Amino acid sequence: MRKITLLFAAMVFGWTLQAQTLNQAANWPNTNWTLNVIEHTGSNAQDIEADPTADANFAYDDDDTGSGSHDVIAAESPVIDLSAAQTAGENFIKVSGEFVFRNLDNDEYLAIEYWDSDASAWTLWYQFPNQDTAGAPYDNYCSGTPVSYLSDALDISGFTATQLSGFKYRFIYNDDTTGGNGYNYGFCLSSPTIFSNSSNFTAPVFTLTSVPDCANGQFSVDVEVTDLGGASGVTVSDDQGSASQQLSATGTVTFGPYASGSTVNFTVINDDDANVFASDVVSFYCPPANDECDNATAVTVNTDDTCTNLTHGTTVSATASPQADDVTGTPNNDVWFTFTAPEASLYIKLLNVTAVVGTSTDMGMGLYSGDCANLTLVNDSDPNTMRVNGLTVGDTYYLRVYGWGSNINTTAQTEFDVCVATIPAPPANDDCANATPLTLDQGAISSFISVDNSGATFSSEPDPSCGDYSTNGLSGDVWFSVQIPAGITEVTFDVANINGLTSVAAALYSGTCGSLTEVDCTQYGLGWPWTISGLTAGDTYYLRAWDYGNNQLGTFDIGGYYDTSSIADNKIEGFKFYPNPVNHTLNLSAQENIENVNVFNIAGQEVLSIQPNATQTQINMGKLQNGIYFVKAQVNGQVTAFKVVKK
User: 3-class SS at 492?
Assistant: First the structure.
């Protein structure tokens, strides 16, 4: 039977309280410890995730401290007198604890150092390996699974009295030992214990190899001890109640079987000194039943877009399929689903994605037509939702789901739910010709229009100049018509209550549907509020809004407003109007014929209109309610607008 080695044993060490002269826990948080910032450059503050003087851990995030920063930081113990330990013949000092480390390169230095009082210098005692601990996260390092460590033995038999009485130790991190700007990840250390011992046994070294029996949904584990650490023998045990097994020489013992998906902790104890032991954890999952296309899991298609029917899946321990790698990402742990298309267009969504092994949840998927022996890619997606069009009703399709990453050791191994759903009818304002009127408010937006881009399709109008408008995306655009009030040349649009979308993009057009000219375009969160100047007062514009990239479904609110301070100044030479404020009659005069005069209220509604075709005219405003009005006048083809107050 083929063996699959899942994990290299990460040594976990410990001891029991026997006749040790020194056995001192740090007991973090401990105000007798000191947090030292030895070096810090750069504008960002150092990100101390846990301060051992105030917290139960020492944790640091170098990534958040910034790319332009070189950082050296340490947690230092109080003075610990080792004289009694040396007198008792316990000349070997060790430190034990647990840690999480997300390592980026070999220039990093995470270590334990001790203070040499004779030399007045810190001296390296133990350096942590420059490698990630199993499942280490990329942030909030104390949330990761801790791995235990045991430092090298420090021989104090030759220490002077000064070195013994002035002894202390520290945990130190240097993000770049070359002195450059490190910009690495980070670590978390638990509260340590320092202890003395009369022997210099090293910890047993062993590896764990899972031996699958997936036909019966189980596995066993080979524990291979490669180094007894100087002991005459070791005892191996698990945490599942199995009988312990002993070895008097290097060799292998087998434990199990265990149910697929079990996590088993193994401990190897030095038979000569129970103070020293090592332990490690192994988990094994049998490949999913739908690991290959021929065993694809059937999916029930929802009759609407609510995803009532979900099909559960997992990529944990899935293997690469023989089908071509023709999708986004790398399908090296793919699983397969199948359904019959009830409609030509469908949504496919991955929901409730949860990391099981590691921390990645970055998924990919591809949809195929044909059969498992001859598949044709229809569409693929890195986002967890995709829209597929042009399906043949009644045909069978195959869905390939996988961790997107290329590294099989770090790609997403998750549990998730698959939803295949029908697409709702397009919104009423799905195209420019059916644009929804958007009324501009004065001074600030008092009323928004709610938008749901589910069912929105792609317009026949030319693509906008921003917003990554992908016609191969998941959703389309929606349209609004905007009439600019008289006298107004500048308006502001804004969005609110964005749900399900990372960013909303929009473009404003002049002209008519089918013959539009883009005026301006905005995108990302920093693009809102969005102010456009130089508009033509009284004209109608078209506002187009869509999800940035057209790859997400959700809702948002959109609205607009104008400020009366943006009213156009009178630019026609010789044109006059008076009085202002006006009680009854507004007088207009010009050097050439006044052709048209239109009066609008603050809502943009026209309330008066005349065509005097004379150089002088009067407007009777006596019957209008008191308030602010905008007057638009055309003189020999030139247009001016101004604000008047009716009293």
Answer: strand
Q: How confident is the model at residue 287 (pLDDT cuts 50, 70, 90)?
A: very high
Contact 278, 203 (CB under 8 A): yes
> The CATH number of the domain where 234 resides is what?
2.60.40.10
Number of domains the chain is built from: 5
Instruction: For 415-468, write each residue's pLDDT tens digit.
Output: 999 999 999 889 999 999 999 999 999 889 999 999 999 889 889 999 999 988
Residues 402 and 443 in one domain: no
The overall longest dimension of the chain from CA atoms, in Å, is 118
> Considering the domain boundaries, does residue 155 fall inside one?
yes
Q: How many CB atoms lie within 10 A of CB 47?
A: 16
Instruction: In whole angstroms, give the CA distance from residue 100 to residue 132.
Output: 8
Domain boundary among 513, 540, 566: 566
Q: What type of residue is 346?
A: L
425-441 b/e with 16+ CB inside 10 Å = b? eebebbbbeebeebbbb
Measure the CA–CA gap between 592 and 413, rounded to whole angstroms.
78
602 and 539 within one domain? no
In contact, 259 and 286? CB cutoff 8 Å: no
Ranges of beta strands (E only) in 382-512 are 385-388, 396-403, 413-422, 436-437, 441-442, 449-452, 477-483, 491-499, 504-512
Please measure the distance between the N-terminal and C-terminal CA atoms of the chain and give it in whole angstroms: 97
Same domain, 440 and 562: yes
Q: How many residues does the chain have?
A: 647
Residue 402 sits in the same domain as residue 463: no
Q: Residue 462's domain spans which residues? A: 432-566
The order of strands in the sheet holding 277-283 is: 12-14, 277-283, 263-270, 234-238, 245-247
Torsion, CA 325, CA 326, CA 330, CA 333, rounded to 10: -60
